[in-house]
Amino acid sequence: MNGMERFELKRWNLCASWSWDVMHDTCVICRNGMMSSCIHCQARSGSMDLLQDDSCPIAWGVCNHAYHMHCIRRWLESSPNPRCPLDNGPWEFTNVGN
């Protein structure tokens, strides 16, 4: 075989991970990671290590900042003039998803 030794692959362990394509990996409102649920969902479930599920979506604004949907909704409801918590610009939703 052209002087090359042949080898046998006996085992191959693959590992994959994913993350949101966001500027910050932490929700600046609740300070939980974007990959985990917001404090509202964690309190409701009684678990501090609850991974994010379909009931805790991420919301993006036109400024490309992202927050847990429950967090930004409460933030916006507490103000008569909805603003982004990070850049203080007018808040407008562009996408909500999991």
Walk me through this protein's architecture.
With 98 residues, this protein is an alpha+beta fold. It has a single domain (21-47, 57-98), classed as Herpes Virus-1, CATH 3.30.40.10. Helices cover 16% and strands 12% of the residues. The chain contains two helices and three strands, in the order αββαβ. A three-stranded antiparallel beta sheet has the order 2-1-3. Strand 1 and strand 2 form a beta hairpin. The longest helix has 9 residues, at 69-77. The chain is elongated and about 75 Å long. The chain starts with 38 loop residues before the first helix and ends with a strand. The model has no long low-confidence stretch (mean pLDDT 83). Keywords: Cytoplasm, Metal-binding, Nucleus, Ubl conjugation pathway, Zinc, Zinc-finger. GO terms for molecular function: zinc ion binding. Residues 27-88 form the RING-type domain.
List the helices and strands and how they pair.
Elements: H1 39-45, E1 58-61, E2 66-68, H2 69-77, E3 93-97
Antiparallel strand pairs: 1-2, 1-3
What is the CATH architecture term? 2-Layer Sandwich
For the terminal residues, how far apart are their CA atoms? 51 Å
Number of domains: 1
The secondary-structure class comes to alpha+beta
Tell me about the biggest sheet? 3 strands, antiparallel
User: Which band does the percent of strand residues land in?
Assistant: 5-15%
The name of the CATH superfamily reads: Zinc/RING finger domain, C3HC4 (zinc finger)
Low-confidence stretches: none
Tertiary shape: elongated
SS element count, helices: 2
- CATH level 1 name: Alpha Beta
> What is the CA-based Rg, rounded?
20 Å
| Average pLDDT score | 83
CATH fold annotation = Herpes Virus-1
What is the helical fraction, as a range of percent?
Answer: 10-25%
Major sheet: order of its strands? Answer: 2-1-3
The topology string of helices and strands comes to: HEEHE
What is the number of strand segments?
3
